[in-house]
Write a structure and sequence with these properties.
Length: 300
């Protein structure tokens, strides 16, 4: 079902591209959002873009108003409201070794945080939870799903999926799920939308154009060491976990506890560092986490 956006709040190419072209500095070899494809409805922008990744240009964006089978990390569901939220994916070909792949998610999170802070006056209220949650006043306002094809020593392509809760009521959406699906939300931060936080609706086209421009800048920065350094600084200044007691789980159902300790920031490859007690193989007592789901623990 495709639902028309309220208040002419359209995210078609005609609305978004002119704004994007005003924002992107000249000189980038590719731009996130060029080419731009809008579908009124699609099961998942990530799945659809992955299907055509091999023959699509770097920067291709797929945007929808009604994502009917949105996917989250670890096989979970991503819920969004037709015509109210932002759901889009961008095709990347980053010159990164797979071990540095987390930097893509970190760059995405930093870009989203910067745009929310600058455009909506939310400085000091946005934080980043490793590896891919953007939090607003401690609640989840944006989720990021990175999917990649690795070939040999490199990343052949990556699809960056971004879901921003803009004008909907994500808590109500989650609470309306049947009981058997609500277990998926255990241990996850409460969702919140920009409208719920700000008390007024946000027009999506300028927000999306701002996001695509900043994503172009942050993703391109990964091609230079000073871009990586700036990115890690941007992450560390918004790190929601640093210094807090954490538990890291593996498995879609968080069935395996991997490590418990104090979060100690992120390493140069985008890995989470945890100061764990009683782990003899850990250098300086720091365990490097490259995959997993993190919860803040009551105490360590
Ligand atoms: C998470 O927090 O678990 C990640 C959520 C990612 C959601 C976005 S919405 C656009 C893109 N298409 C999908 O199916 N998922 C991502």
């Amino acid at each position: 079902m495709s639902v028309p956006a309220r208040n002419h709040d359209s995210v078609t190419a005609a609305m978004v591209l002119p704004l994007l072209f005003e924002l992107v500095e000249p000189g980038f070899p590719w731009v996130a959002g060029v080419p731009y494809e809008y579908l009124p409805s699609v099961p998942s922008t990530n799945a659809a873009l992955k299907d055509v990744a091999a023959r699509s240009r770097t920067g291709t964006a797929l945007v929808t108003d009604d994502q009917t089978g949105g996917r989250g990390r670890l096989g979970r569901t991503w819920l969004s409201e037709p015509g109210q939220d932002l759901t889009f994916s961008v095709l990347l070909r980053p010159p990164l070794e797979p071990v540095r792949g987390h930097l893509l998610a970190l760059a995405t999170g930093v870009a989203v945080a910067e745009v929310l802070e600058e455009r909506l006056g939310l400085r000091g209220q946005v934080a980043l939870k490793w590896p891919n949650d953007v939090l607003l006043a401690g609640k989840k306002v944006c989720g990021i799903l990175m999917e990649a094809s690795v070939r040999g020593e490199g990343i052949e392509w990556a699809v960056a999926g971004v879901g921003v809760n803009v004008n909907g009521e994500p808590g109500r959406l989650r609470d309306s799920l049947p009981l058997e699906r609500s277990a998926e939300w255990r241990g996850r931060p409460e969702p919140i939308s920009l409208r719920e936080h700000l008390g007024s609706a946000v027009t999506r086209a300028p927000l999306l154009a701002g996001l695509l421009a900043r994503l172009t800048f942050r993703w391109s920065g990964l091609e230079r060491e000073n871009g990586v350094t700036a990115l890690l600084e941007g992450w560390r200044s918004r790190d929601a976990l640093a210094g807090r007691p954490v538990e890291v789980f593996a498995g879609a159902d968080r069935s395996e506890l991997v490590v418990t300790g104090e979060a100690a920031g992120v390493g140069p490859e985008g890995q989470l560092l945890v100061r764990a007690e009683g782990v003899p193989e850990a250098e300086d007592g720091l365990v490097e986490v490259f995959a997993g789901d993190v919860s803040v623990a009551a105490s360590v």
